Amino acid sequence: MYRKITLFMLMTLLVIITGCWDSMLVEDVFIVTGLGIDISEDNSNLITVTAFGPSVIEKAEEPYISFSGEGNNIGKALQHIRNKTYREVAISHTMILLFSEEVARKDIRKYLDLFIRNAEIGSQIAVAITKGRAQDYFTTKIRSNPNTAMFISDLIETEERKVNISEYTLRGIVNKLNERYSSLVLPYIELGKNKDEILLNRISFFKKGRIVGTLDKDYILPLLQLRGSLERGSIDIGSANPKKEIREVISLKLFPKSRKIDVNIEDNNVNIKIFTKSEANIFELEPPEKKIDEKEIENIEKRSEEYLKKNMLELIEKLQKEFKVDGLNLSEYVRVKYPDYYERTDWNEVFPEINIDIKTDIKIKGIGLTK
After folding, report:
1. I want to staple 209 with a disulfide (CB 3.0 to 4.6 A). Which of 17, 109, 175, 357 is the partner?
2. DSSP one-letter string for 194-220
3. For 164, left (φ over 0), alpha (ψ -120 to 50), or beta?
4. SS3 content of the chain, % helix, strand, coil (to 5)
5. Contact in structure between 74 and 49 (CB atoms under 8 Å)
């Protein structure tokens, strides 16, 4: 009986003294929803971290506020912010991580360590590169959503669903950077002309953790189709004769059906052929009275194939000659078919010199949005 009473008392004490011993009041915590990483304007050896979140000031005019701190790493910069706010800085609710292009040109890998090792940080945090300083994006007032971090996160999430690029999250970045020849692709955001809007109109390419260039969204569709991850997309082929007085617009909804990649290596010369097949629907046509017969459909198919191939070749030209990065992940096909060649060569050095041939096939199945 005595042992039972003693056990009951011990269990009661455990309930009383555990669970909330290290808890803090909400007003004692600055809950971060967005983080921006910049190079310090005063010292290029330091970084500036901007933390954005709900205002910690009672009856503040603005519902959200940002604080910046400097340090030689993210942890030190966050400590600087703690000293400014006299509050604990909680980053477990971070929704968006922004790196300025200046930081990205140095190498983002060394700044990711804190987030990769911190169990409180979700692996699905959205990550983006900014034109100009990252901290400027958290002072931008978006009319539709005062929580700028949430707005940017939603913007990227919406785009990710459309373009199907897994690297847009922290987990995707880590997986890519662990590859032997990582070719990271991240969203690239810009401020609008009036500084009251945030635009996602470009994508950025990385090589070994460093940004090597950006491309506008027109190249996303050919990129994804060449990668084999495009689910659907649209192309506008316009008029066959630009000198026509009557404006002509032809827009197609594209449904990729197959992609085939053939790799052939002879005398250390790498030749790769990529074949893509798609079906398409015409969903916009101007002038609307334009006659669409079998001959015209064949004409549109040919023009759309030429248009898509042209964009694909332009993309490949930039990847090979300007960025010098395998954004198409072709190294995997070389590794599978020619493992010995793959092991003894540096693909980063080989990729800019390989021969890539493109063949596209598009068949129009109907007029309208439905598949």
Report:
1. 109
2. TSS-EEEEEEEEEETTEEEEEEEGGGH
3. left
4. 35, 30, 30
5. yes
- How many Å is the maximal CA-CA distance in the chain? 101
Task: State pLDDT tens for residues 168-206.
Answer: 778 878 888 878 877 888 999 999 888 788 999 899 999
> Mean pLDDT for the chain?
83
Contacts by 38-45, CB closer than 8 A, 24 or more apart = 38/100, 38/102, 38/103, 38/133, 38/134, 38/135, 39/100, 39/102, 39/103, 39/106, 40/70, 42/70, 43/70, 45/72
Complete DSSP assignment for 83-132: HHHTSEEE-TT--EEEEEHHHHHH-SGGGSHHHHH-TTS-TT-EEEEESS
Q: What is the model's pLDDT at position 334?
A: 96
Torsion of CA 279, 284, 288, 292, to 10 degrees: -10
Per-domain boundaries in the chain: 27-217, 232-367
CA angle, residues 43, 76, 99, in degrees to nearest 5: 65
* Strands of the 198-207 sheet, one edge to the other: 64-71, 47-54, 34-39, 96-100, 126-130, 185-191, 198-207, 210-216
